Every structure is written in C-alpha cells, then in structure tokens.
C-alpha cells in the first residue's frame, strides 16, 4: 500500500489528469513544499518528484509506487506509541534526514566550527563527494531475466521494483529493501546514496569513512 494517499484539502488541479501515467489527479498527493525534498537539500539536480506520493521515487506510476512501498513492508518502521503505516514512515523520514544527511555535511553555511584556514578543504571535500560519490538511486520496474541483487546477491525477479545505483555500476541493481547504508544499515532516505568501494553509504557514513567526525558538534570533516 502506498502509505501516502492523497489527502483532502491538498489537491488543487482537480480537472487535470497526470501526464506521465494518465491517472486522475485526484489520486495524487501534492508535494509538500514546506518539507523540502532530499534533492533540494542536496542541491543535486532539478527537483523531480513523484506526484503520487511526494517522498516516493520519481518516475514510477501509481501502481509501481504501491509496489515499491509494499516491497518495503518487511522493513516498515514502527513509530512512537506503536504507530505504523504512513505515520510511522513520515516519522522515520524526518529522523533519517537528520541522521543520514546532516546539514553540516552539505554546506559550509551550516558549519559553525570550520575556521578560515579550513574552508577551502571543506569546499573541496564537498565538491569531490558530489562529483564522484553522491547520487540518487533510480527506481524502476525490472523486466527481463532475473539478475542478482548487488546487496544480498539473491535474485531480483522480473516485474518487481528495483533500485539502480549508477555510481556503483551500470549493472548494479538492488532490492528496495537492500538499498541501505553499509555502515548503519538504515534504508537510504529517498534513495540518496554515496558510493565508496562498490558499497552504498549514507552521506553521514560516507564522510566518516574518510574523515573523523567531532563527537561534540557533529561536524565533519576536521583536518
Ligand atoms: Zn499519475
Ligand atoms: Zn537484495
Ligand atoms: Zn549510514
Ligand atoms: Zn566540534
């Protein structure tokens, strides 16, 4: 089940149908601007959104979006007070954003302790990471002879949703449940990953593989 069904009061273009899948716009959830997307946060590329569900991978039809979320069911979080489903995923996303994509890893503007002499090194680190390691996984419905998941080595069946990581390799396909950080094992929020030595990492743990993090202020890198 898509945990983010359209909510009353959030729909505006009621007469339009969706260009990409032709479905009724009424069935779409509208992007929650105030929450911001991972793409915005990373400043990676123009915002592509999944108009069925604002925090689902773009490019999937409504049916594929449902399939994506149902394939994640075994890793569904349980929220505070035992909340499940959409509410629990929403709470998980908020936590995961802060933990996986620390603002101070993304831009100097959020660092308080990097002095004048180290600004250049910080900028170089961030630029190099963005250039060679950081990317967003691409979700699609897989068709063809089954391939082995680059995470668990078990087969990905034709017809199921898969996530590709181009920075790992052209043929790097993952089960949605296997698209997680090699260090903390958390599902990668909105499929944002860093590639290092053929493995997936969240932004936080990618940095920590290369630089020590200060436990006091949570900033990295320290030179
Ligand atoms: Zn649609
Ligand atoms: Zn797998
Ligand atoms: Zn991690
Ligand atoms: Zn510090």
Task: Tell me the layout of helices and strands.
Blueprint: H1 38-42, H2 62-71, H3 85-100, H4 103-106, H5 119-132, E1 134-136, E2 138-141, E3 147-148, E4 155-156, E5 161-164, E6 173-174, E7 192-196, E8 199-201, H6 203-210
Antiparallel strand pairs: 1-7, 2-5, 3-4, 5-6, 7-8
One zinc ion (ZN) binds near residues 20 and 51.
Describe this structure in words.
This protein is α+β, with helices and mostly antiparallel strands and 223 residues long. Helices cover 26% and strands 11% of the residues. The chain is built from 6 helices and 8 strands, in the order αααααββββββββα. Strand 5 (161-164) and strand 6 (173-174) form a beta hairpin. Bound molecules: zinc ion (4 copies).
Q: Regions with pLDDT < 50 over 5+ consecutive residues? A: 1-15, 28-35
Quaternary form = single chain
Radius of gyration: 18 Å
Could you give me the name of the CATH homologous superfamily of the domain at 103-210?
A: Cysteine Rich Protein
How many individual helices? 6
What small molecules does the structure contain? zinc ion
Strand order of the largest sheet: 1-7-8
Overall shape: it is globular
Structural class: alpha+beta
Strand percent estimate: 5-15%
CATH class category of the domain at 103-210: Mainly Beta
Largest sheet: 3 strands, antiparallel
Structure summary, number of beta strands: 8
Mean pLDDT: 81
Taking the alpha carbons of the first and last residues, their distance comes to 46 Å
Q: What is the CATH third-level topology name of the domain at 103-210?
A: Cysteine Rich Protein
CATH architecture annotation name of the domain at 103-210: Ribbon
List SSEs in N-to-C order. Answer: HHHHHEEEEEEEEH
Q: How much helix is in the residues?
A: 25-40%
InterPro entries: PET_domain, Pk/Esn/Tes, Znf_LIM
Protein name: LIM zinc-binding domain-containing protein
GO molecular function, one term: zinc ion binding
Domain LIM zinc-binding: 147-212
